[in-house]
């Protein structure tokens, strides 16, 4: 880093619709979890799956 290299981030985000009967109304992420964490290098690209608790 710092040597003129170019970096690019591409992200996909998924979840479910907010249902006030099932979900508490919070706006902050509590933590990233290790549950189903995946870090994998495919060719020259790193793929990461992480789940956030809110």
Helical content, roughly?
Answer: under 10%
**How would you write the strand order of the largest sheet?**
1-2
The stretches of 5 or more residues where confidence is low (pLDDT under 50) are none
The count of helical stretches stands at: 0
Q: What's the alpha carbon Rg, rounded to whole Å?
A: 16 Å
Number of strands: 2
Main beta-sheet strand count, sense and barrel state: 2 strands, antiparallel
Element pattern in H and E: EE
Through-space gap between termini: 32 Å
Instruction: Name the structural class.
Output: mainly beta
What's the overall average pLDDT, rounded?
83
Overview of the molecule:
This protein has strands at residues 31-42, 45-53. Strand 1 (31-42) and strand 2 (45-53) form a beta hairpin. Strands 1-2 form a two-stranded antiparallel ribbon. It has a domain at 22-54. It has 54 residues and is mostly beta strands. It is elongated and about 50 Å long. It contains no helices and 2 strands.
């Amino acid at each position: 880093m710092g040597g003129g290299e170019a970096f690019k981030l591409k992200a996909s985000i998924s979840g479910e619709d907010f249902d006030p009967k099932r979900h508490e109304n919070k706006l902050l992420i509590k933590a990233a979890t290790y549950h189903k964490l995946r870090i994998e290098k495919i060719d020259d690209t790193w793929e990461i799956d992480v789940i956030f608790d809110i």
